[in-house]
Every structure is written in C-alpha cells, then in structure tokens.
User: What shape does this take?
Amino acid sequence: MGERKKTTIANLKYKREDRWANYIKGVLYEFIQLGYSFKGLDITISGDIPPGIGLGSSAAVGVATAMALRELFDFDMTGIQVVQTAYLSESAFIGNTERLTDQFCIYFAEENSAVFLDVRTLEYANIPFSLSEYKLIITNSNVPVINSEDEIKDRIEECQKCLTVLNSKKQGSSLRDFTQSDLEQSIGMLTESSRRLCLHVIDENQRVLDGKKQLEQKDYLSFGKLLNRSHESLRDNFEVSCPELDWLVKRAAEIDGCSGSRMAGPGFCGCTISLMKEDSFVKYNERLEEYDRIFGFQAEYFICEPAGRARVIYSNINRDL
Assistant: This one.
C-alpha cells in the first residue's frame, strides 16, 4: 500500500489508525505473552489477495508473521501454536469476531485438498479435491467494503440466546448438538428471527458433513447443489447477503456447466465462490458485463486452485545478517 508503520515493543497496542499493521503487532504481542523475546524487525508485506472481501488476507498476514518469527529466531513452537497465535492477534488483540478456521487452513492445507476441521476438537482431515473438469472460481463483486462486525456480533448473540432456550430441554454446548427437530420443539419460545438464525447454523453444520462425503466421492454436481442451498440459507435465514451477491450467485448457477455457487466471507459485500467448467467462462463473462450495467460495479473473477500450506521461502540474503 506504499505505507510505513513503526512501533516499539513497549507500545504494542491496537491503534485504529495503524489498520493493516495491527495484524502484525498483534502477532508480536502474542509472542511476548508466550514468553518469547526478539530483536528489532523490518517487515515488508506484499500480496495479491484482495483485502476485506472474506478471502482471509488478514489471516494470511498473521500466519506469515508468526511463521517468519518462529523461523528467524528458532522458536520452539508447534504448528497449532502458530495458528493460535495468529488467531489471537485478530480475536484478542484487535477484537474481531473470529474463528481460527482461516488460520488453520492456511497452515495445514495440502495441495489439491480441502481442509475438513472440527473446531471443537481441532481434529482435521485433508479431503482430496482434485477438480479435473471443474474450476474453482472466485468472483469479487467489488461492492464497497463495509464493517460488518456489529451485525455479525448481533447474530451470534441471538444464537446464544437460542442455545439457552434449547438447553432447557436438552443439554448441548453449541448449536451443533441440536437438530431441526429440537428447534421445532422450541417454537413459541423463540422469536422467528432467532429461529431462522439458528436454523441456518444447524443446517449448515449438516451441509458441511454432507459436503465432506461428496468431495470424497468426487460428486461435484451434488456438492454444487449444497453451495446453492448454503447461499439460499445465508440470504434468507442468516441474512448476510446483499442484492449484488445474490445476483452473481443466481446468474452463475443458471449457466450450463456451473454446478453451484455461494457467497463467501462475512457478508454484505465481498465475493462468491463457484464450481464451473472452463467452457462456461464465455457465458459467465457476458453475465458479468450485465452485472456492471445493472449495479455499476465491475466484478472480476479469477481461478483458484487448492494449494499447499504456508511455508518459509529463503531469499539469497545471508540468514546471519
């Protein structure tokens, strides 16, 4: 971004005006909390992940910083400690509403695989995701980025209230411990808004389990249908979509050769993710031109491939320097 930020160890505090630098400061702060010490650092960042649209650019910065520190100073840290440090830099230091899924996937990904993660136990599996005839398409809506933190926090609070009601009949520590039937038995004790929020979470958990099986079977047509149903629920139940994202998802799903599409990221702006055959790109380009005329935003897409985990790459600079 052509900017420079400077700080000291004694002044590692969140500052709104430091924006992107807070993600680095947060990692440095968390390392100090773990008892590690380090010398002066000069850190340069470059990247091509568009920020603010739900693709994990901030998580990438956090994991990269943690891995660089571990390598540079030879700190004895496990992979999960690196992940947790990067996660805490966003959740505890900055105060964002975060799960550690982005950081975990960045560190534990394998080429041509999807990461299946149980957030409760941190057990995970790398599911083969070799797309062959299909391509994974990320489309940036270019809708102006908004701060959705308050909106997401409100929805989480509503889900927590719903969990309390559900616990009056059946014990569970989170919504994953309940079913649609449990939710139906609590009708009258929940507001319609709360019921729909929780319905999305319960159904989405099941869709993740179903999606795992379909990827293992290389059933990309069924997996695409799951993407469509997921978006419909994000739109109608969790209410975090927007007209532009809805339009992009619907128009993509209408194209022969597209198995499915959904929004990605926290919502209200950002991007969509679609499974599409390469011979569908011409038609999709026509749809994006139409999108520009209707909404006034120039959407852009790029092909994404399941890549390997984050890693340290040495330049020809002497490490002893």
The beta strands are 113-117, 124-128, 134-140, 258-264, 271-277, 300-304. The mean pLDDT is 93. The chain has two domains: 9-128, 134-304. Residues 192-216 form the longest helix (25 residues).
